[in-house]
Amino acid sequence: MLRDVSLGKCCMICFAVFCLVFAAQLEAVTLCSDVGKYHHIDRRSVFQFKHNASERQLRMGAEKPSIVNDERDAPRTRPQLRSSKNSNVAFDPTKYACGDPSMTECVNKTQVFKARVLSEFRRILKESFEENNYYRVHYNKPIFDGESELCRLKRADVRTLSWRDPPFNWNEIGSYFPLNPLFKERNASCAVIASAGSLKGSRLGDFIDDHDVVMRFNHAPTKGFEVDVGSKTTVRVVNSQVVTKKEFKLLTAKHFRHVSIAAWDPGKFDQSLEEWIKSPDFNLFENFKKYREKYPGSNFHLVDPRSIWRAWTALQDKTHTKIMRNPPTSGFIGLGLLIPACRYIDMIEYIPSSRMNGLCHYYDSEINSACTFGSWHPLAAEKLYVLQMNTADEFTTFQRGVVRISLDSNSGC
Ligand SMILES: *[C@@H]1O[C@H](CO)[C@@H](O)[C@H](O)[C@H]1NC(C)=O
Ligand SMILES: *[C@@H]1O[C@H](CO)[C@@H](O)[C@H](O)[C@H]1NC(C)=O
Ligand SMILES: *[C@@H]1O[C@H](CO)[C@@H](O)[C@H](O)[C@H]1NC(C)=O
């Protein structure tokens, strides 16, 4: 059962589409008491706002981002979709969307939307769930808990494996590892592009392409969606199902060429690398070797599965309820991988914006009931964790769909 909905389906779906879960939701919007808990962070817009109706897309400059607030970006142009079969409430993307942060009504809408989103995350965190602990996770609450979310995630040290890591320093698989690291960059501007359906109509393409490093997930396309999602891809994070299964065409598809790739497979919690090699969740090693053989100049890495579980542990450390004992999403793993390379990381539609429309992904029209059960990954915990690190203001976050994580030296860890 678990295997059926395992990584591929879930990562692709859950990561994108928390949306439908919200759709099922409640009129009771309460501002939770710890909504503003993070007041020590100075939150600001990542854009500069000006009105210019002839500009087609939102833009940012290198350090002083600018944005053009386009009238055509109005809610009525966005797809109106009925929510999933499993949800009783149709979600209406026109209800909370607005384009002018200087208007009181827009501030109000943003506030109400934010409260609704956060209360939904928190509701899901408190929900009980059944699980069989397939990954043999065990956990002890740490005694010390004073670290910020950012410092805690840094300490998790999400990383790719190196040919120097035993047993890869002598085994056959290790001989296929690239010599270069996944990222040569330090101090880069970075963007993480979720595959969410609510990217549709965002017009964030130029904004995204202005980043030095642009990370996408699995087989998420850019062709045909450039205005909203950009055309640049520097790195893809893919799960082991995408590496393994024929339909994803790892060895031949264009979107897997001329980009760095970080593939992950969770193995089991606390498993040694030797054990992992013998029993990965999906046997990604064969296609990894084939790809590296076919494209010797490629920059294809494997994520250290132990570091995936360290990220899970960081998540659980910072979450006050018990989270699913399943690996984090590709989005959260990608975020961890980027930390050493970036001066800031913009996560696009990782936190759902007011464009939330019920679509699973921006690139298909799937309204899948599986999307409604976004509970395979510890998703709500991840999103609340990311919001704690957010330095972007509320309009940027909940209307534009951009969360910024600043990694400058004064982050204090
Ligand atoms: C608006 O954008 C267009 C196209 O980029 C540009 O040519 C024009 O100068 C801009 N107008 C203002 C007032 O910034
Ligand atoms: C803002 O929202 C509150 C309640 O949610 C409402 O009473 C108030 O009239 C709203 N203000 C504006 C300007 O829409
Ligand atoms: C990082 O880049 C920014 C912007 O280019 C620059 O101002 C800053 O000095 C750089 N920091 C380091 C440590 O190189």
From TrEMBL:
Its EC number is 2.4.3.1. One of its GO terms (molecular function) is beta-galactoside alpha-2,6-sialyltransferase activity. Residues 60-88 are annotated as: Disordered. One of its GO terms (cellular component) is Golgi cisterna membrane. InterPro entries: Glyco_trans_29, GT29-like_sf. Residues 1-28 form the signal peptide. It comes from the Eukaryota. Pathway: Protein modification; protein glycosylation. Keywords: Disulfide bond, Glycoprotein, Glycosyltransferase, Golgi apparatus, Membrane, Secreted, Signal, Signal-anchor, Transferase, Transmembrane, Transmembrane helix. It is found in: Golgi apparatus, Golgi stack membrane; Secreted. It is a single-pass type II membrane protein. Belongs to the glycosyltransferase 29 family. The lineage of its organism: Eukaryota, Metazoa, Ecdysozoa, Arthropoda, Hexapoda. The keyword Glycoprotein applies. PANTHER family: BETA-GALACTOSIDE ALPHA-2,6-SIALYLTRANSFERASE (PTHR46059:SF1). This is Beta-galactoside alpha-2,6-sialyltransferase 1. One of its GO terms (biological process) is sialylation. Coiled coil: none annotated. It catalyses: a beta-D-galactoside + CMP-N-acetyl-beta-neuraminate = an N-acetyl-alpha-neuraminyl-(2->6)-beta-D-galactosyl derivative + CMP + H(+). The keyword Glycoprotein applies.
